[in-house]
């Protein structure tokens, strides 16, 4: 093995600093590393799942600024719907109505529910008004003297028909009733003790100052974000698992053979995701066992295989421990990171152990000599590859979505753990480890080498001109094909239902049932119309809203539109003896004041001063195309069709508005992040090899795999979203590992005077075998994700399997073919000692 760097003096200078720490003070360093591992192990044991709605959205996006500004007036986007379906007939049966009442009461007291925004036909805010001979009459849909009697059921049936709630709180066929909840973003039960109030004071003061000292909503958001995420004691975030469990208790309590309970909403998604994420622990253990078995077969020594497995576990412990130490939890979307860290650690561990065993079996080195020689050969390229990963993963931190930033920090911590464990702990452990049967190990190694040599000799033909032209041409054609498919990759969701869960999951079945029975559902876009104080008694303002409402009702993907306008028209008709021709907006301000006064602000349609109105647009789905079309329609109306420019239409609130903000943030950052990742990788490659050939031979296969990744996403209908955006960046990191280890050996062979074909053959006998093994092993490990109950984990698994496998092929097949055209540059450095003193290590008698 040899270090692929032009400046051996620089390499030796680094090793002169590092070697005494690792090999000169082995006992002290080993003790210190074990103490740190124990400390971080304790922290990792305290790690808990931590999912939050605000973490998944771009809080600085203009749509989110609108959302936060009007959160108190118009509510948020964190809605839960509980639908009870009666299989014995309609809802007007005493037994069913009692079940609905009790379920509504239980839902009202779920921790974290905004009780001012709980709606069902039992809510006192749900009433009807009708025109009678003496004027107007009305009452609550469920009368105050309610009793579960047949006579009362008939009365309720009539009230429901008059209350305009069919399609909203009662299904069209009147067999299903809905309970609508809205959740707070913080736990209302936290921060109530004196101690917590004291802890919260400094942060509350910063929040108050940010809110009062200016109109910069970004500063307000930052203060809110800090309060919600950085100090759990001051104000704990809502426990979505607890909410989900409370919802499941309602389902278990009231679902019978005659009644089905459907539950949809973000809190239920998080609960289902968290429970399904427990599968990942099983997948992790199975992957670890598979990796250990494959390592045993590959290395030929069970103890050595267990050393590699153990160090990968230590690296994961460091990652999770560091994450908890800085106050983070483990988000379900970040569960791929421990898999990634295990895979990278195994990859580097296999390279190191293989080289160490080779020194033992072929050069009769002592364990110490073999470890020192291997360290001098692999430390620099290994650390360079890992540092490239750290910096590359850190670039996704530029995406201003908290869950992605947490994944970035998580991955960076993991790579730091791999550096410390694989480049310090592993060399020390191997310096003490003695193979029990060196001669037997040597014979087994020679046998495996002989079996592989025939294949490797044939593969070395890839460095010749004819095969090199064919492989390079295929590579470029595949890259062009991948680039041509980029425009087909959707930004956002591509399927009905919740894409995080499988289509046949209980949640998505519930979502389809609710969508089939109600015109209003979880998916809705809120557009805020800003005007001026008492704007709702200005006819021109209300007429503009009426035109906009009609325009949006006629857009594809819109199920229904609801706003103050519709209620005002109904009220005007009611005040005009129920005449159908009076179901319009009156022009007189006094008449507008009279009818809008009948609509309370608790409906979420208007503010206290009526300077802003909310338009609820209920959509057929939340596919990316639907969201983009609707937001574009709003912008088109505001720019080209709006007549009264005193009205400012602002996007957006509701869960569709939040999704639109997220999709736009992903679209805005997707290509820049890829360019940043590649910029960092290419810079590190140049600093490592100081040759254009090194950059091209590693960079071209890597770029080809990334472009083909877009083709895979387009073919399988995988959208580019929060869950998948970091995956290709992570796969690039694995490709860099493969490329650096592979090219370093080829370059070193060329500089020693070997032909390219012979240098490639030697590379396959050393790092090439390890690359083949780790690529296959990591692909098998991540392949288990395809069986996850979570759709986004399945998508991640598919993309990672593709990334690991394709990058392995790139390093084994494409890299040597490219080297045929570019590697002549390495001959300029012929004769230089690039082993950083690895050969001298054999003379060390320790």
From TrEMBL:
GO cellular component: plasma membrane
Name listed for the protein in its UniProt record: SSD domain-containing protein
TM spans (from-to): 27-45, 280-299, 305-326, 333-357, 377-399, 411-433, 673-692, 698-718, 725-750, 770-787, 799-822
Source species: Panacagrimonas perspica
Predominant place of localization: membrane
Ranges where the SSD domain occurs: 304-432
PANTHER family documented for this protein: MEMBRANE PROTEIN MJ1562-RELATED (PTHR33406), SSD DOMAIN-CONTAINING PROTEIN (PTHR33406:SF10)
Topology versus the membrane: Multi-pass membrane protein
